[in-house]
């Protein structure tokens, strides 16, 4: 019996020692490192939360931003409408010798501000591009530069002639004149009475019409899926007619379809037109404009790709003008 007590006592002591040993091991096992907050990270690694102003995206367009701070809206007209009419009448009717340089300057500034504010309030895109003096537009004429006179735009609306107007065409293409002819065409009249009237005024019943076949080598911008087209030049200066019919010439033009077709040498072509603002010669990869308008002539010496890139930037900035 005594022997059994001793055995039980020994077993109990061993069990206690084992339990104490397990607790000791448990205490020496390191806890895995967990980051409870950003305070435990080095200061350089802590990402500051973005402020509300930094996360907001400015959705305003270029023109909307310009309009908010444009000084033209701060200008106040010192004259009533009746006084304005009287001022204009007196100035326009005054003899040249009676106007001082200061009076002329004041008058021009007043008219510019009055017209500018009215335009800005009704059509800010038009005002900013054509009248503000802060856009890319250059309405000056380059002295000594060759010119393809194009007066059709004067009857098409109030917009001045400009390079951005080419964005309203169908495509910009690289083309070559490959054939041209001159044919006799009978005049068409809306009525017998009109025909008799025009004939009495000396108009001939027929006229000579030039037709130039242009072969398209490349489409630089827009959509154009024809191999060529016919162009009816009308009355042109001899140097331009020579350029448009010289098969050695490579030309770049912004073209738009005219709803007519013509047969030349047994082939039917669709008629396309272009204007002086959108016509260039291409020599050794560089452009030379046929317009002396500064807004177009500024691309002299540029590549076609540079010109197209400039047009696309204008379209993005002034979509209301396209």
Condensed summary:
By secondary structure, this protein is of the alpha+beta class. It is built from ten helices and seven strands. It is globular, with a radius of gyration of 40 Å.
Please provide a written account of the structure:
This protein is of the alpha+beta class and 322 residues long. Helix content is 36%, strand content 21%. Strands 1, 2, 3, 4, 5, 6 and 7 form a seven-stranded antiparallel sheet that branches. α5 packs antiparallel against α6. 16% of the residues are buried. Mean pLDDT is 84; it is low at 1-41 and 152-156.
Which structural traits does this protein have?
single chain, 322 residues, alpha+beta
């Amino acid at each position: 019996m005594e022997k059994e007590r001793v055995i039980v006592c020994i077993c109990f002591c061993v069990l206690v020692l084992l339990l104490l040993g397990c607790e000791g091991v448990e205490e020496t096992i390191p806890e895995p490192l967990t980051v409870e907050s950003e305070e435990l990270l080095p200061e350089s690694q802590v990402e500051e939360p973005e402020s509300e102003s930094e996360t907001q995206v400015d959705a305003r367009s270029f023109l909307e931003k310009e309009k908010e701070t444009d000084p033209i809206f701060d200008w106040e007209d010192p004259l009533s409408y009746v006084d304005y009419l009287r001022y204009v009448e007196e100035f326009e009717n005054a003899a040249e010798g009676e106007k001082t340089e200061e009076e002329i300057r004041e008058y021009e500034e007043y008219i510019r501000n009055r017209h500018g504010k009215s335009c800005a309030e009704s059509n800010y895109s038009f005002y900013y591009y054509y009248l503000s003096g802060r856009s890319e537009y250059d309405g000056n004429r380059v002295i000594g530069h060759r010119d393809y006179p194009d007066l059709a735009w004067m009857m098409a609306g109030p917009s001045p002639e400009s390079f951005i107007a080419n964005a309203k065409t169908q495509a910009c293409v690289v083309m070559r004149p490959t054939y041209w002819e001159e044919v006799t065409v009978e005049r068409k009249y809306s009525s017998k009475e009109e025909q008799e009237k025009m004939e009495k005024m000396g108009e001939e019943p027929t006229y000579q019409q030039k037709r130039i076949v242009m072969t398209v080598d490349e489409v630089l911008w827009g959509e154009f899926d024809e191999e060529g087209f016919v162009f009816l030049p009308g009355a042109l200066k001899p140097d331009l007619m020579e350029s448009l019919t010289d098969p050695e010439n490579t030309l770049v033009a912004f073209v738009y379809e005219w709803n007519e077709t013509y047969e030349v040498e047994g082939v039917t072509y669709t008629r396309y037109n272009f204007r002086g603002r959108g016509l260039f010669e291409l020599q050794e990869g560089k452009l030379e404009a046929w317009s002396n308008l500064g807004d177009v002539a500024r691309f002299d010496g540029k590549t076609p790709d540079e010109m197209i890139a400039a047009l696309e930037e204008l379209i993005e900035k002034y979509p209301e003008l396209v």
